[in-house]
Amino acid sequence: GAVVSQHPSWVICKSGTSVKIECRSLDFQATTMFWYRQFPKQSLMLMATSNEGSKATYEQGVEKDKFLINHASLTLSTLTVTSAHPEDSSFYICSAGRTSGYIQYFGAGTRLSVL
Amino acid sequence: KQEVTQIPAALSVPEGENLVLNCSFTDSAIYNLQWFRQDPGKGLTSLLLIQSSQREQTSGRLNASLDKSSGRSTLYIAASQPGDSATYLCAVVHNYGQNFVFGPGTRLSVLP
Q1: Is residue A100 a contact partner of residue A2, using CB atoms and an 8 Å limit?
Q2: d(Cα A41, Cα A56) in Å, to the nearest integer?
Q3: How many CB pairs under 8 A join A and B?
Q4: What's the gap in Å between the CA of B44 and the closest CA on chain A?
Q5: How far apart are CA A94 and CA B42, in angstroms?
Q6: A86-92 contacts, C-beta under 8 A, 24 or more apart
Q7: Which residues numbered 83-102 in B keep a CB inside 8 Å of some CB on A?
Q8: Does B40 contact A at CB distance below 8 Å?
Q9: Residue A72 — pLDDT band, cuts 50, 70, 90?
């Protein structure tokens, strides 16, 4: 079946540093990928829609300058958390959809801890 | 705006019981609905996907139904086992190519 790879799975960083998270569709092309965030004991909330070759679409309340999204190819989208702070500590997960039948596949997620 | 709710928020049952998890969504014009399992600190495991034209899907001890007109789905788990303990999330896709909208989840504990 289709696989979406997300890396890293866990990252710990100091406050003020930037962290890049990669989301790759391994065996299909994805013109659109989605980035979600999950705070402890809460459900997943959509952060942004990543569109290949164009700017990402951000949900209300998500700072586009803080959460930089780049979708430079049909198989890779990256989310960079810039100048991370402890309140950015969360579980970030991406998904990508295969065009045929539109089934979405999720990455395994990235747990970010900002000290 | 689509909203997804799940009842109950938490459930604790003894091993062997059959149980039902409920999901409701406010906009019935969905493309598909999916049930996921999430273990603590882990990602999502897809359990069952129901397309808007379907009424139910089955996989092993799991059965999911969809009543699109009333905006409801149920996940039935037969003969529950301690290994079923996890959070179960319901999510809908409104249109082709769009994102999931997730419910808050039901936290299930199956006691041995």
Answers
A1: no
A2: 27
A3: 47
A4: 7
A5: 13
A6: A86/A15, A86/A114, A86/A115, A87/A114, A88/A112, A88/A114, A89/A113, A89/A114, A90/A37, A90/A38, A90/A39, A91/A37, A91/A38, A91/A39, A91/B41, A92/A21, A92/A35, A92/A36, A92/A37, A92/A38, A92/A47
A7: 89, 91, 93, 96-97, 99-102
A8: no
A9: confident
pLDDT at B98 over 90: no
Range name among A96-105, B3-12, B21-30 with the lowest pLDDT average: A96-105
What is the SS3 string spanning chain B?
CCCEEEECCEEEEECCCCEEEEEEECCCCCCEEEEEEECCCCCEEEEEEEECCCCEEEECCEEEEEECCCCEEEEEECCCCHHHCEEEEEEEECCCCCCEEECCCEEEEEEC
Burial class (CB in 10 A: 0-12, 13-18, 19+), B73: buried
Question: What type of residue sits at position A69?
Answer: I
- B59 band by pLDDT with thresholds 50, 70 and 90: very high
Residue A32, chain B, CB below 8 Å: the answer is: yes
Report residue B53 as tokens: 């034209």
- B79 to chain A, minimum CA–CA distance in Å? 27
Q: Are B21 and B6 spatial neighbours (Cβ–Cβ below 8 Å)?
A: yes
